[in-house]
Structures are given as C-alpha cells and as structure tokens.
Design brief:
There is one protein chain. With 250 residues, the protein is mainly β. The chain has one domain: outer membrane lipoprotein receptor (LolB), chain A (Clam). It is built from four helices and 13 strands. Strands 6-5-4-3-2-1-13-12-11-10-9-8-7 form a 13-stranded antiparallel beta sheet. A hairpin with a 5-residue loop joins strand 8 and strand 9. The protein starts with 25 loop residues before the first helix and ends in a 6-residue tail after the last helix.
Length: 250
C-alpha cells in the first residue's frame, strides 16, 4: 500500500501563525514541520516503529500491521477478509510486494525508489537526502484550511505536491505519482485525527484515493523502540527466489 509514511506527526499550535506572510521559504516549511512535530532529537531517538490499525477498501475490511527499523527496513501486511494477505517490504536494498492475485514481485525503477523513501525511518529529518528540489507553489484551501502548497521533486521519480496547514504546519494532504502493476497512477492522500504517540503526534486516519479504489486506514496504535521479531525484514522465500533469478522478476 503506497504511503508517505504511516506515522506523520504534528503539534497543533493554538492558532499561531508560524511564518510571516511575506517571508516563506519551502525549506523553512519542511524544517518547521520537523520542529513542531517533536524536533530532530526526538525523531532520531526512534530506532524502530510498530503501527497497527484497520483498513477498509471497496467494502472489505481488514487489519494492518507495519514495522520499520532504522535506517531503511520495512515490512507491512494488510490482511483483507475474503482476499488474504497483501505484503510489502524492504531490506534496504530490495523492495518487494506479494499478494494472492499478483504473487511475489520485486519493485524496480520509480516504484522501488518510492518504496525505499517510505521505508526510511529518518526521511522527515533528512528530507534533503531524498529530494533534489523544493518549490513553494502558492496557497490553496484544503478542507477549509489555508495551506502552503509545496512541490517536492525526489531524486528519482515524479514530483509530489504537499499541503501544509498555514497555522499549525500540519501536513494535511499529499498528491503523488505511483507505479503499480496496472500502470502509472496518481494517488491522493489525506491525513487527519492526529494524536500523540510516544511524544510524536501521528495522524490516525489516512484516506488514500486511487483511480482503482479508495482506501481508508485507521491507525490504532504507533509504538516506538519496540523489539522487532527476528527475521522480520528477511526476504520471503518467493521474493528471494526472484532476487536470485533476475530473469524471473515480474
């Protein structure tokens, strides 16, 4: 499941404007985001992350479990009633996906680059390592909130459009290109219901809109610096077989 990050924190600031109207730089908005959501030091104390929740897609319900570990290991599984498990992961070099319909496959190109960005535990604090250009593209209302509109171009892949609440610097919406087995698409992600988890504020509702489906994720808990089961980020046997035989990659 494509995402910017499951744990996107924020600290509400009681109606205080964060920037002077005539002096806004895109990099300042991105750095302020880190500051108001707990600060660089708090982020970089996190070594592991476990998020759990529920998923609703096309009238079907399921559960979500997501693990991440520094610097860039990730594994998530969505278990949908009636369909089975949809798994994704990264061991830092290989990004992969596996589900009952597509089977196992290894991500390549822009899809791989996006997966590795999503897996990076310190992407918020080290955003300069992942994006080669950032531009402020004016202001726009999102859900009745005046937002800064930023265009971020990653080192690999198409540009992302992000919307930050002008009052709180909360990230409320992202529009980004995604690569899927069905082809290139545009995903729209909306973030709401922010609650503090281990000192980091996290959106507990993530609504993702794709041409093929609307997905609603409700995060129940986000825990940091938890023990990760041994071998959690190892490649599944089906994926390892593809990695060992490149000609068989899907």
């Amino acid at each position: 499941m494509s995402r910017v990050r499951l744990a996107i924190p924020i600290l509400m600031l009681s109606g205080v404007a964060l920037f002077a109207a005539d002096d806004v730089k895109p990099e300042a908005i991105l750095d302020k985001y880190v500051e108001v959501t707990g600060g660089r030091a708090a982020y970089e104390k996190i070594k592991t992350e476990l998020a759990t929740g529920t998923v609703e897609v096309m009238g079907m319900n399921g559960t979500l479990t997501s693990y991440r570990a520094a610097p860039d290991q990730a594994y998530s599984v969505v278990d949908l009633s009636g369909l089975g498990k949809f798994e994704e992961g990264s061991n830092g070099q290989i990004a992969w996906a596996m589900d009952p319909m597509q089977g196992a496959r290894i991500k390549e190109g822009n899809e791989k680059a996006a997966a590795l960005r999503s897996a990076a535990l310190y992407m918020e604090t080290h955003w300069r390592d992942f994006y080669k250009d950032e531009k402020l593209a004016g202001s726009e209302d999102v859900g009745g909130k005046a937002c800064y509109k930023l265009i971020l171009t990653p080192n690999q892949g198409g540009p992302e459009t992000r919307y930050y609440d002008k009052t709180s610097n909360l990230l409320v919406k992202v529009i980004l290109p995604v690569t899927t087995p069905q082809g290139e698409m545009t995903a729209e992600m909306d973030f709401s219901d922010y609650r503090a988890e281990d000192g980091i504020n996290t959106p507990h509702t993530i609504e993702q809109k794709l041409p093929t489906a609307d997905i609603v994720v409700k995060i129940q808990h986000v825990k940091h610096n938890v023990d990760i089961p041994a071998g959690r980020f190892d490649l599944p046997a089906e994926v390892k077989a593809l990695a060992d035989n490149p000609a068989e990659k899907k």
